[in-house]
Design brief:
Elements: E1 3-8, E2 14-18, E3 37-39, H1 62-74
Amino acid sequence: MPTYDYICDGCGHEFEAFESIKADPQKHCAKCETDQLRRKIGGGGAILFKGSGFYITDYRSDSYNKAAKADSASSSPPPASTPPASGGSSSSSSGGSGKS
């Protein structure tokens, strides 16, 4: 069952009520005894666990995600068609820098 927020337009009294989804909204304010009570519209029922004890990577900031994406793109291996940088065999017989 969800928790609903209520506010009284007459006296400003605010409270939460644990009610069934099928239940009609409350109308009567217990504090000022008027029928000016209305249900507030909330931000949704999502639960966010932010704090110690939860996975650090669950709620990364956009700036962190952009930096991680850029870092992974720059550290990716070269394409397979590129010859290896270290040369074990050389076609030059001079054994130097490879210039003729």
